Structures are given as structure tokens and as C-alpha cells.
Amino acid sequence: MTKTILYARVSTLDQTADHQRAQAEQAGYKIDKVITDNGVSGVSTKLAERPQGKRLFDILRPGDTLVVRWVDRLGRDYRDVSDSIRHFMRDGVVIKTVINSMVFDGATKDPIQQAVRDALIAFMAATAEAQATATREAQRAGIAAAKAGEQKKYRGRKPSYDRKAFEIVTAMLDSGAGASAIAKAAGLSRQAVLRIREDRALAEQALALWAM
After folding, report:
1. How many CB atoms are located within 10 Å of the residue 75 CB?
2. Taking CA 192 as the corner, what is the angle to CA 168 and CA 205, rounded to the nearest 5 degrees?
3. How far, in whole angstroms, is CA 130 from its chain's centroid?
4. Which of 5, 14, 31, 66 is 20 to 30 A from 147, alpha carbon to alpha carbon?
């Protein structure tokens, strides 16, 4: 019997596997099992090196569906995300995302559909790496400021968004959604979304400085 597995990576206090499952079910997915990696950095650890990420390669079978909130959950950079998606597709696993309901299926034999699918994988993997790079740079900046004893001096105004809202905004920006739609989905003002869009690294740094 085929199954639908949700893979959740939880790296911050405001992210939970239950929340990610609820999002998936609200998007119409019927989840049979949830596999969760807690406290694992998505920007420094490959999927196959994460304790539960490794399980995915062992338990997924042809015909199964792997659901993730967004493709950035499947690797730490462009190569890792792309390799993970292609590995699962070769094994007959369908990958689906909660955000924008993207589908990656290796079963298609039509060359045009294959070309479109492969181009989409490349684009999504590239945006995931860009987001991870911005996160790493912002984290380094926040750590450097703290070590220099300047954290309080440079903290500035507390962000109007938390980590969860920030991730929703960045993911939807990468998918091409408009500012108004993003603001509604993230529960933020349109101006807050535009500020994040204008300087994503600075927005991430503000979260780091305020330990959010």
C-alpha cells in the first residue's frame, strides 16, 4: 500500500511538526506519517546526513508521496536539493510541496514535460540555495555583532514579523507571489513584506539580533 509521508525540519521554537502537518492538511494532503528532524540546521547539513532525513531514503517506496513545506527542506544547497529530488523521482516517489502545490514526478515520459520539470527543479533548487546563503550571512552578521558587544546598540526596532512569518514571506517571494497576497498569508502588513523583499539579509539579521 502506498503512503504519504510529510518530512518536517524543525530548527526554531516557532516551528513545530504539528504546525507543518496542519498546513499540509489544510492544503488538501492526507498525511499517513510524519518524519521530523528537530534542531537540525538546513543551511549546513545535507538531507542524507540528518538523523531522520536518512530514514526517507530507506522507507520511501515506488508510488509513495513525499510532502514538504518547501523544497528547501530537502537539502542545504542547490546540489543537495536537486540531487535529493532526482533521487526520489528515480525511485518512483512523487514529491509535493505545501507552498504553491508544486509536483515533481519522474513517471512522465513526454520530453517536453520532462524539460519543463527539470527546469523547474533547477529554479526551485537555486532559490532554496539563495535563501540559505542569505540566512548564513545574516547569522554570521548577528553572531559577529554579539561577540563585539554591539548587539544592544545595533538591535534597532524589534521586527514586526517572527521566524515563521519570515519563512512564509521568503518562500512566497521566491515563487513569484505578490506583496498583498503574501501579506495576507503571513499575517503582516504589505509594508513589512516590501521591507523584507528589499533587503532579505537585513530582515534575517534583525531576527537573529532579537533572537527570534
Report:
1. 26
2. 75
3. 11
4. 14
**pLDDT of 124-178, one tens digit each?**
666 666 666 666 666 666 556 555 555 455 556 788 888 888 888 888 887 788 8
CA-to-CA dists, residue 59 to 35, 97, 174, angstroms: 11, 19, 30
Which sequence spans correspond to the domains of the chain? 4-108, 114-209
Cβ proximity of 78 and 72 under 8 Å: no
DSSP assignments along 69-102, one per residue? SSGGGG-SSHHHHHHHHHHHHHTT-EEEESGGG-
> If you ran DSSP here, which 8-state letter would residue 12 be given?
S
In terms of DSSP bridges, do strands 33-38 and 94-97 run parallel, antiparallel, or are they unpaired? unpaired
Cell numbers 546598540 correspond to what residue? 153
Predicted confidence band at 65 (pLDDT cuts at 50, 70, 90)? very high
What top-level class would CATH report for the domain 4-108? alpha beta
CB 89 within 8 A of CB 119: no
- Residue 67 has φ and ψ, to the nearest 5°, of -105, 135
- Angstrom distance (rounded) from CA 14 to CA 56: 24
